[in-house]
Amino acid sequence: MRISRHRRFRPREEPTIHHKYRVNHFINVPELRVIDENGENLGVLPTHKALGIAEERGFDLVEVNPVAQPPIAKILNYGQFKYEKEKELKKQKSRSTEVEIKGIRLSTRIGAGDRAVRLKQAGEFLKEGNKVKIEIILKGREHQFSHLANEVILQFVDSVKQIVPCHIEQDLTRQGGKISLVITKSEIKNES
Question: Is the pTM of the predicted complex or chain greater than 0.90?
Answer without folding.
Answer: no
